[in-house]
Design goal:
The protein is an all-alpha fold. It contains 4 helices and no strands. It has one domain. The N and C termini lie far apart (45 Å).
Length: 89
């Protein structure tokens, strides 16, 4: 997964500016050099979160990804073992 060029604090700050109503979303996108789609994705995913909550969410997503990978590897192992047991010698 690509690393964002914006830190968690910067993303929260950008979203907070828009939430405060001091600047519109289009102006924020132009000012920070992000696409409108990226801004909307951030808003849907991180809207209303603080920096610590955002970090916790990212760490949980990473842990979930790793656990899914482990389950996938175990499923492959089980499938291979069943294929070996099913063979008649």
């Amino acid at each position: 997964m690509r690393k964002s060029k914006f830190s968690d604090e910067q993303i929260v700050g950008i979203l907070a500016q828009e939430a405060a109503g001091t600047i519109t979303g289009t102006e924020l996108c132009r000012k920070h050099g992000i696409s409108r789609q990226t801004f909307q994705r951030w808003k849907a995913k991180f809207g209303g979160l603080g920096v610590s909550e955002m970090r916790r969410l990212k760490s949980l997503e990473d842990e979930n990804r790793r656990l899914k990978q482990v389950v996938g590897e175990q499923a492959l192992d089980i499938q291979a073992l069943r294929a070996v047991v099913a063979k008649k010698f």
